[in-house]
Structure formats: structure tokens, C-alpha cells
Amino acid sequence: MNVYAAALLLALGVPGASSCSVPSESNSEAPASAPAIPDTIVEIARARLAEDTQQSNRARLVSAERATFNDGSLGCPQPGMFYTMAIVEGYRVIFEVEGETFDYRLNSQGAIKRCNATGIEVHASKPGMG
Q1: Buried b (16+ CB within 10 A) or exposed e, 53-70
Q2: pLDDT per residue over 89-110, tens digit each?
Q3: Which one of 29, 74, 88, 101 counts the least CB within 10 Å of its CB?
Q4: Which residue, 48, 79, 43, is CA-closest to 64?
Q5: What is the reported pLDDT for 32?
Q6: Per-residue CA distances from 82 to 85, 105, 110 (Å)
Q7: Contact, 112 vs 10, CB < 8 A?
Q8: CA–CA separation, 3 vs 110, rounded Å?
Q9: Backbone dihedral angles phi then psi of residue 128, each to the nearest 5 degrees
Q10: CA distances (Å), origin 70, targets 10, 62, 74, 86
Q11: Which helix or strand (DSSP H or E) is residue 97 part of?
């Protein structure tokens, strides 16, 4: 099972999901002002950060918050793509690694994407993008 999907199932309390495992690296703490979101959401984003940078152990969690997006792009469209035109509940998790910001967006089905500073998708990861 995909790490992102397994972690989301755990976060949502899906029966039988407790047998799934998610890699964990907790060298940083959430800012005191960050709204409480499931720890698993941050771990999903940290796993993606590890794929993107191989430096997740050097990452500092800047923010992790619930977000409401205007469409299926999660506020981070990929040029030339079309997205579901509906409100999407999800999360925005931001890390900083050696001065570089990594902005991740997740929806409630486990789709995760990384956005660059201009709000454009860097690249998509399964499951179920769009």
C-alpha cells in the first residue's frame, strides 16, 4: 500500500489501518501557533519531503494547518490540467530545509502535491491527483 494512503487511513481511523506503517522522522516540532491537525498528515508530508530532498531529517516544520481549497488543484495548479470545480477540504504543510521552503498540499483522499513559490505544482504523487 502507498505510504501516503496508509498514513491517511490511520489518520482517519479506518478499521484495519493500524497494521500499516509509516516512516517517521521527528527532528522538528510544530510551531505553538499551528492548529492541531493529525500527526499523520505531517508524516505524509515529511515522507514526500524525504522523496523530494533526501534531507527530511534537516527539515524544520514551519506550519501545518487545515485548508479549504477552491478546486481540485489544492491551490496549486499544474499548467494545462483541468480540475474538479468544487470546494476541497485538506491540509497545507510547510517545511524549511537549509533556507528553501517546501509547500505541500494534501486532500482528504491522500493526494499530495508540492507547490513552488508561485503556486504552481512541482510534480504530482499518487494516489488520485486532480
Answers
A1: beebeebebbebeebebe
A2: 999 999 999 999 999 999 987 7
A3: 29
A4: 43
A5: 52
A6: 9, 17, 19
A7: no
A8: 10
A9: 50, 60
A10: 26, 23, 7, 6
A11: strand 88-97
